[in-house]
Write a structure and sequence with these properties.
The complex is a heterodimer.
Chain A: E1 3-4, H1 12-21, H2 25-28, E2 29-30, H3 37-46, H4 53-67, E3 72-77, H5 84-97, E4 103-108, H6 114-124, H7 130-160, H8 166-180, H9 184-199, E5 210-216, H10 218-222, H11 230-236, E6 239-243, H12 247-256, H13 266-272, H14 284-296, E7 301-307, H15 311-320, E8 329-334, H16 340-362, H17 386-389
Helix pairs in contact in A: 1-7, 3-4, 4-5, 7-8, 7-9, 7-11, 8-9, 13-14, 14-15
Chain B: E1 2-9, E2 13-20, E3 25-32, H1 37-51, E4 57-64, H2 68-75, E5 79-80, H3 83-94, E6 100-104, E7 109-115, E8 118-124, H4 133-142, H5 147-155, H6 168-180, H7 185-202, E9 214-217, H8 224-233, E10 238-239, H9 247-262, E11 279-285, E12 294-300, E13 303-308, H10 314-321
Parallel strand pairs in B: 1-4, 4-5, 6-9, 9-10
Antiparallel strand pairs in B: 1-2, 2-3, 6-7, 7-8, 11-12, 12-13
Helix pairs in contact in B: 3-9, 4-7, 5-7, 5-8, 6-7, 7-8
The chains are: A alpha/beta, B alpha/beta.
Chain lengths: 400, 322
């Protein structure tokens, strides 16, 4: 059994760690190359055009895994959540049409009981004894938690570092080091070390950067390729990013605790209740709740990430627009047509908007965007339209 | 005299505006970009220099528009600002009571919602060109009408035809159909104006609360047919500010004025000499990973000035290091 997995943020690192601990090594686990333009091109080429970005990217990953010889692939499925429910079935068909006879192992995120998840893990581990599996699992999760903790620090440092890009390069190093770590002790040490290094990065004088939360569909929120490195770009604009959706949390709840009846989203759903009383599929309900919570927590704004054509997030987007909580929301639609310059214009304008709001709040509402150094000129409307047509060089005598 | 230069390099037109310290427009120029932003910036700079009253000093330069980064490097700009903020600032400068800005340019259109002098919301068209100036441009050339005469002609219409404007492709086939049925050109022209406006409100302005005063700016505000169509839809009359086509550039100039007032250093503007220097642009495909990013690079006399276009900051940093 040679198992290929799709990428989802850093999830490949704990999976690899588990495989190594179980002695499976590189033989049995096939990690496709990092999601790239080629992955996207492959995914787009073989997907129905109206499929969403997560579908296309994961298909691309699976094709690349099959190219490397995977005969079994892992994918999520579910009922009543969103199109994710048919990802696996469709992708299986597409892979078969392409001539790859890959066996699909699917995790039902909506229905599987804990027992069947455990069963599946056991199968994937070639029936290794449970104590060994648990040790391997703890090792993998340790790496994931460490990475998420470091990432949280990176999100803060990016906003205030003097030398832009330094936090990122430390983060890249950290990912590699943790990926290569051999035991729990080493992971713990690396965790401490990298957080220390990040804390020591020289910071600018502005002590209080803007805080923007990220919410929306989990795949495009977590996978940097899908959201065009939005966190990095926000960091460059001097913004601190807050993201409650993390991989470690996803694994902990979606795979295990939810199945034991623990409601991860209780608070969030409660917050969403005045506006939306039921699950609308995907992460739509949660997105609405996140907006309410972010407004309470003193975030300056919220960026709502949604795959283009995603039904649950489209529902959420329209509700988020009209809740009474006063929190600016920018929805960024992610798809293969999205161009980075267009996104950057919107991000920059959004950041300006938040900065002006903050300034106004600080000055208790008595401020114009402009200080009064610039006299505002009340120009008369020029009735002569011709003069509009010809922006001729003249000292504008009509204004001021 | 201290002045501040705003440069707005859009996809269709390039605008330069020189503002005096008191906010008056001292010089301006409006050129077609024609896919050559650097050349047009150089040309625009020449035109500004000719108009400049003697004794003028440029104390700050800002760029905006879709080629703002490129123009920023070429000019040595003190500030590079997105076009939403620039347009909002300029609108508030001319019409302080503004609450809504409608801006329709060549390749994109936006709505900016302002309350109490602060931008609180904005929208930009996403994946569709049917609400922009190039839609009108294209259809005008199809009807063999000069874009400058479009508005006048459209106003003559008494019985505008209804054109499906959701998508430029459908609009075009619908327009041809209406032509073949023998409708008058002016009725078709005004029908197009209505289609564009309908599209704008269904797309860009969807869900936004439009309160007066509504300021209409951007190149398309030259078109009286569009102004009429907007007034038909809105409960209020739109206000077209003077120099509406220069608003992005004016906003950038206002912003750099503000910026330089608090800055400790002098302007980084490279001077009018850059009109004569030889900028050279080339591109290559980065092979470092499977992303195969297209990296554009800007050279001045064979020396690299800037690189951009990558997903990661590999090449941008490589320039910064030098």
């Amino acid at each position: 059994m040679r198992i290929g997995i799709p990428h989802f943020g850093n999830v490949y690192i704990p999976v690899k760690a588990m495989a190594n601990k179980l002695g499976a090594g590189g033989e049995d686990l096939i990690i496709p190359p990092p999601t790239s333009q080629r992955t996207l091109d492959l995914g787009v080429k073989y997907s129905p055009v109206e499929a969403c970005l997560p579908y296309k990217l994961t298909l691309g990953n699976l094709i690349e895994a099959c190219e490397l010889g995977a005969d079994t692939v892992l994918q999520a499925r579910g009922t009543g959540i969103c199109r994710l429910g048919y990802y696996a079935k469709n992708q299986e068909q597409i892979l078969r049409d392409l001539g790859y006879d890959a066996h699909f192992l699917t995790i039902d995120l909506s229905r599987h009981k804990l027992a069947s998840i455990l069963n599946m893990i056991k199968t994937l581990c070639h029936g290794a004894p449970w104590p060994q599996i648990i040790l391997a699992f703890r090792f993998g999760m340790g790496k994931l938690f460490a990475l998420d903790r470091i990432e949280k620090e990176v999100q803060k440092v990016r906003a205030v570092e003097i030398e832009k890009g330094l936090a990122n390069s430390i983060y890249r190093e950290a990912i590699q080091a943790i990926d290569e770590a051999r035991d729990n002790k080493e992971v713990k040490r690396l965790n401490r070390e990298y957080i220390d290094r990040l804390k020591r990065v020289p910071r600018g004088p502005q002590a209080d950067p803007l805080k923007i939360a990220l919410a929306g569909e989990i795949y495009v929120v977590i996978e940097p390729f899908a959201n065009m490195d939005i966190e990095m770009e926000l960091g460059k604009l001097g913004v601190e990013v807050e993201r409650t959706l993390t991989l470690s949390r996803w694994v902990k709840y979606s795979l295990f605790l939810n199945r034991l009846g623990i409601d991860e989203w209780k608070e969030v759903h409660k917050a969403a209740l005045p506006y939306l009383k039921r699950d609308v599929g995907g992460d739509g309900w949660e997105s609405v709740g996140e907006k309410v919570i972010c407004a309470r927590n003193g975030c300056d704004g919220l960026i709502h990430l949604a795959p283009f054509t995603c039904m649950p997030e489209t529902v959420a987007q329209n509700i988020m627009r009209s809740t009474k909580e006063d929190l600016p929301v920018l929805t960024v639609l992610c798809d293969e047509q999205m161009a980075k310059p267009g996104m950057m214009t919107r991000l920059e304008a959004f950041v300006d908007l938040l900065q002006f709001r903050r300034k106004r709040r600080r000055d208790k509402g008595n401020i114009k965007v402009f200080s009064n150094r610039l006299p505002v000129c009340h120009s008369e409307e020029r009735s002569d339209e011709e003069s509009h047509r010809d922006p001729s060089p003249e000292l504008d005598s009509g204004s001021g | 005299m201290k002045t501040y230069l705003g440069v707005d390099v859009g996809s269709v037109t390039t605008k330069l505006a020189l503002l005096c310290e008191d906010g008056q427009l001292a010089a301006s120029t409006y050129l077609h970009t024609q896919g050559k932003p650097i050349v047009q910036v150089q040309e625009g700079l020449k035109a500004i220099k000719e108009q400049m009253p003697p004794g003028t000093e440029i104390c700050g330069v800002a760029t905006t528009g879709s080629a703002r980064y490129l123009a920023g490097v070429v000019l040595g700009a003190d500030l590079v600002k997105n076009e939403v903020t620039s347009h909002a600032i300029a609108a508030m400068h001319y019409i302080p009571e503004v609450q809504t800005v409608i801006e329709i340019g060549g390749q994109d259109s936006k709505i900016i919602i302002i309350r109490d002098g602060v931008v609180i919301d904005f929208g930009m068209n996403t994946v569709c060109a049917a609400g922009t100036g190039s839609f009108l441009d294209h259809q005008a050339s199809r009807l063999n009408i000069k874009i400058e005469e479009f508005g006048e002609q459209a106003l003559k219409s008494k019985m505008p035809v209804r054109i499906a404007g959701r998508c430029t492709v459908f609009a075009e086939s619908d327009m041809i159909h209406k032509q073949q049925m023998g409708h008058k050109t002016e009725d078709i022209l005004y029908g197009l104006c209505q289609a564009l406006v309908r599209n704008y409100f269904n797309n860009v302005a969807l869900g936004k609360k439009i309160l007066p005063k509504v300021v209409f700016q951007g190149g398309v505000a030259f078109n009286k047919g569009i102004i009429k169509a907007l007034n038909e839809v809105l409960d209020t009359e739109v206000v077209v500010p003077p120099h509406h086509e220069l608003m992005g550039a004016i906003g950038a100039a206002l912003l750099v004025h503000e910026e330089m007032a608090t800055a400790s250093s002098k302007s980084t503007f490279k001077g009018f000499g850059i009109s004569e220097t030889d900028f050279h642009v080339s591109s290559f495909i980065c092979k470092a990973c499977p992303n195969q990013c297209e990296i554009a690079q800007l050279f001045l006399d064979g020396r690299i000035l800037a690189r951009w276009g990558g997903r990661c900051d590999r090449w941008e940093n490589a320039v910064a290091m030098k």
